[in-house]
Design brief:
Length: 359
């Protein structure tokens, strides 16, 4: 396969992940020890991608300091910023100004919030072999009502794009990774708000152009919510999805440089322990993301949660399915669970929040 170019869509504000995304764009959140995008960049490189154009908008200035020119990944990276959000289609068209590929070349489009184990090279080869206008990665989910479903005929041709509906005709959904023929990108109106899902793809189908579905059942996860974000990090640490960017061996936990875990602490379930983070004796951490410089004190329990940079979970506190913002302090004896989110810098007094009646 010739050197492949890609556009990476990273303009979203990540509102469903607040407060984690108040200071950091979603694609840069630490996931299994490295910025989320590091996993996507390393996987793209392994499938023959050599040049990637970032389509940035929200906190755009933070991406280049994180990844530079891409040499560390064996990639060439370029950064294009949307001054006003242009939708998925508009963002792709805007970023295409920086592409070097010819009109008949394939261009890979990646979404900056998806973890996927599918074979990108196979998707590109299928696209080229059938000379499709666009080839969409489709994945199968248990509950397609939450997504737009994408029916195909027996040859793999996409026949419709159906928005969220209570009675889906298929459990195959748009998985957010596309291969476009370059000339099709150039036909998207410039400097306009355009949705590929609502306008570009249905328009191509209507005009009789070949839109293909590349369906598979490999690992796939949209990390848009705190629970999904934690799951993604956990699955990478446990090795359920292979990533060349993982900064250490897979296992029950991954500890970054300077992390201090007491021999009397229990850390398991695919937990990522950030640089210089401290887990004291008698603390229990399972399946969680502990950010740099945070402290989990004696007897505290953290499960399926995110603890932000420099945050402190004090003695005896229980944190389950929760998000603790950067530099927040959760006093002793609190119980935080059921999706509760503590904003950055907040200081919660001792026993301020309880779910059980005992004192």
């Amino acid at each position: 396969m010739p050197d492949l170019e890609a556009i990476l869509l990273v303009g979203g504000q990540g509102t469903r992940l607040r407060p984690l995304t108040l200071g950091t764009p979603k694609p840069l959140l630490p996931t299994a020890g490295v910025p989320f995008l590091a996993h996507q960049l390393a996987r793209a490189r392994s499938f023959g991608v050599r040049r990637i154009v970032f389509a940035t908008s929200y906190k755009a200035s933070m991406f280049e300091p994180a990844f530079g020119d891409g040499a560390a990944f064996g990639l060439s990276l370029e950064y294009i910023t949307e001054e006003t959000p242009l939708g998925t289609g508009g963002a792709i068209r805007n970023a295409a100004e920086a592409l070097t590929s010819g009109p008949d070349d394939p261009v890979l489009i990646l979404n900056g919030d998806i973890l996927s184990g599918h074979d990108i090279e196979h998707q590109v080869r299928m696209h080229c072999a059938q000379q499709a206008a666009v080839t969409l990665h489709l994945t199968e989910v248990d509950d397609p009502t939450r997504f737009g479903c994408v029916p195909t005929d027996e040859s793999g041709r996409v026949t419709a794009f159906l928005e969220k509906t209570p009675n889906p005709v298929t459990n195959r959904i748009n998985a957010g990774c596309y291969v476009f023929t370059r000339s099709v990108i150039d036909s998207i109106p410039k400097d306009q708000v355009v949705s590929v899902e609502r306008e570009t793809f249905p328009g191509l189908i209507e005009s009789g152009q070949l839109v293909l579905g590349y369906a598979d059942r490999t690992y796939w996860l949209d990390v848009g919510t705190p629970a999904a974000f934690v799951q993604g990090s956990r699955d990478l640490v446990l090795g359920r999805l292979h990533s060349p960017a993982l900064p250490g061996p897979t296992g029950e936990y991954l500890a970054l440089d300077g992390a201090r875990i007491s021999p009397e602490a229990k850390v398991q379930g695919g937990t990522a322990v950030g640089a210089r983070a401290v887990v004291e004796a008698g603390a229990t951490v399972a399946g969680s993301v502990l950010s740099d410089d945070c402290v989990i004190e004696t007897g505290a329990s953290v499960t399926d949660s995110v603890v932000g940079k420099g945050a402190r979970v004090c003695a005896g506190t229980v944190v389950r399915d929760a998000v603790i913002g950067d530099r927040a302090i959760v006093g002793a004896g609190n119980e935080l669970q059921n999706g509760v989110r503590i904003w950055p810098g907040i200081e919660l007094p001792e026993r301020a929040m309880r779910y059980s009646s005992d004192v």
